[in-house]
Amino acid sequence: MNPGTVEQWGRRQIMLDKGKISAFQMGIMMYPTVVVTGILLLPSLLAQAVGRDFWLSPVWGAAGGYFIVWICCWLYKRYPNQSIVQYSERIIGKIPGKLAGLLIIWFYLQLNGYVVREYGELLVGAFFPRTPILLVMGSLLLVSACAVRGGVEVLGRSAQLFVPVVCLLFVLVVLLLIKELDLRNIIPIMEDGMMPSLLGSLVPFGGWYGEFLIISFLLPSLTDSNKGMKWAMVSNSLIMFTMVVTNLVVLTLFGNAAPRTIYPMLEAARYIEYGDFLEHVEAVVMAIWILGVFVKISMFYYVVVIGASQWLKLADFRMLIFPVGLLVLILTVWGAASLQELAHTIGTAGPFYYATIQYLLPVILAATAWVRKQAQSGDLR
C-alpha cells in the first residue's frame, strides 16, 4: 500500500463518526473518565502501599498525565486526522502496526470490563444485595451502548451535562465533612522522606493518568485541535487536585484506619449528620459515582468500537456496538472472581501492565516517527 493510499484510508476511517466536539468538551470528558474510579478505590490502595503520605502520590503521578498528553498531541500533529490505531501502521509498518492497534483495542476492552465490574460490585454490595450483578452491569452497558451509538458528539454533550453535577455534589460532600476532619492525622509529613509517596505514585501514574492516551482517539474529532493540549492539561490538573482533596479527606477522617476501608468516600458520607434533617447522604456519593462512571464506561466503549472499526476498516462503527458490549459483559465475569481480587490486581501488577500499553507503546511510536523524520530530512548521523 503506497503512502497516498494510506492517507486516503485515514480520511475514510475518520468519517466513521462525523460528530465534532470542542477541545473544552474533550477536557470535560476526560475528567470523569480518569477521576471517577480514582476517588472510590485509589485512597485505600494508596494508604495500604504508602501510609500517611498517600495524599501526595497523585501529585507526583500527575507528571504521567502531562507527559502522555504531550506525546499524543505531538503524534497527532505529525499524523493529523488519524487515531493511534491508524497512524501506528504508518509509523512502524503494516503488520507491527496492526498488532499495536489490536493490543490497544484489547487493553481498553479489558479495562472497561474491570470498570463495569467495580460499578456492579459497589451497587450490589452497598445498595442492592438481592439484585443479580449481571443485571446491574448489563443495564448500564445497554445505556452506554445507546450513548456510543450517538457518536462522540452525544458523549461530549452528556459529559457537559453530568460533570458539573458531579463536581457540585463532590464539593457538597467535602464541605459537609469539614467539621469531622482532624488535620493532626496528616502530621508528620514525609516522615520517611519522599520515597514512599513516590513509589505510591506508580499506581495513579500507570493506572489512572495513563488513560489520557484516549485523547489520541478524540483529537481527530476536535473543531479546534490547536487547543487540544491546553484543555487536556487543564483537565489533568483538575484531576490531580480532586485526587489530592479526596485523599486528604480520607486521611484526616479515618487516620490510621484508612488502609482498612474499601470504599472510603462512601463510608465517609455516613459521618455526615446535621440535626435530624440531613444524614445518611451515601446516595449523594452514589450519584457522583453513577454519573461519572457512565461517562467513563461510555468513553472506553467508544474507543474500543471506533478503534476496532478503524482496525477492520469498516464503513460503519455502529455494527460493532452490541458485540463489543457482550464481550465487555463477559470480561466482567472472567476478569476477576471478586472485588478484592480485582483491587489486588490493580494495585500490584496493574500499574506495570497499564504503563506498558499507555506509556511505552506511544513512546516507541513517537521515537520511531522522530527517527524517520530525521532520516528523511538528512539530519540523522
TrEMBL record:
This is Spore gernimation protein. Its main location: membrane. GO terms for cellular component: membrane. The keyword Transport applies. It comes from Paenibacillus thalictri. It is a multi-pass membrane protein. Keywords: Germination, Membrane, Transmembrane, Transmembrane helix, Transport. The chain crosses the membrane at residues 21-42, 54-76, 97-115, 127-148, 160-178, 198-219, 231-255, 283-308, 320-340, 352-371.
